[in-house]
Amino acid sequence: MILNPEKALIGSLMMNPQAVKDCGSLQPEMFIDGLLGRIYLQYLRAYDFGYPANLVTIAENMPDIPKPQLLDCMKDCSDSSIVSTAAGRYADAIVRTYKAREAARLINGVNFQPMDIERQIGELVNDLDTLRGGSRTSARNLAQIVNEVSSGYFTDNEIKRLYTGFPQLDECLGGLEGGDVIVVGARPAVGKSAFVTQILMNMGESGKRVLLYNLEMSERQVYERMVSRQSGIKLNRIRRGKSFLGDEKSRFDTANGELKKLDIWISSGAKSVPEIRNECRNMDADCIIIDYLQLVRSDRRYSNRASEVGDISKSIKALAMELKCPIIVLSQLNRVSEGRETKEPTMSELRESGDIEQDASVIILLWNRDENNRSRKGLKVEKNRQGQQTKIQLEFVGGSMDFRELEYAEEPKGDFMPGRQQDTPFGLWCS
Description:
Shape: globular
Largest sheet: 9 strands, mixed
Order of helices and strands: HHHHHHHHEHEHHHEHEHEHEEEE
Low-confidence stretches: 409-414, 416-431
Structural class: alpha/beta
Radius of gyration: 25 Å
Mean pLDDT: 82
């Protein structure tokens, strides 16, 4: 019997899921058999996020594959494996086969022309060299990019973007795209965590996979906010209630049932950017949220805090580009805005580093518009690399941790004048 390294690898992982750490540079797309590649991806995700990898969890995460087909496939893999300790050797064999296949495709795909031979050889050598190193070339010819993306414009075909669930904000941003870093800044106790939790829930309810790195609160505290918002039961009742009143039980049970359906992952505790990357790289997330930037742990020592935060900011931007996934990052602001009569902040007040405002694609700032009535919030998009800027009035219902955009039923006062250009430090506004 000729050994199939792909089946043998899955069989060895069935015996010892932890052996996935020995698989080196092997990626799911390197498999010839697409189903086996998807099964391997499930083992990677289970290892990264620390949950058990077995037939039950794999079947739950691959609902589009009929269970009898999956069972037959994994039984075949189990019969193909000799020992669990050979996972590394099987992975090496798959990688080598993949490289041989890709090298043949690259060479056979070139129609050499005498007039263009130098450029063609150069591109081929570059592609083969990056293949040898286990990665693909990142540079692409402009003609390739034009051919790939130009057909998606001025058509009814929606370019894949992610929306926050706040209509006025989405109208201004036009959706979030892979590689974007969206910074949400506010002073403490303004409600930035509650605001981003609502965005998280909106995305989850639209069927998106969202990863939340909450470095400030425990998983239990995050859950309490979510179930309060979902059920409409005040947060204090969720935390302190000894028994249900009225229809609270049915609302609580319904909310928990709805939360279980959401593809939301939560990680608490201090993390560095490399640790976040290791957990995220195989999760195929639609969005990553980090709450908040100043609590991200550095894996190096710096002479000053500004340099440390600046390096963390750049690492988050690099991660967003690598994963082709938008990352929403919360950030504290310094106290400068508290000295203003309006309390309205600017992006120069992002705490501890000017690199944050440079690296961000979008900067959203929140503040209390009325210190005597903290349900009245202001939101402004102060930086929007791909579009316009805006201000929005929000109402915050603290009991259920819920933000609502306000419509302009009457002429707004003072600094809220949407729908036209303003003589302000930051240009155009969206309606």
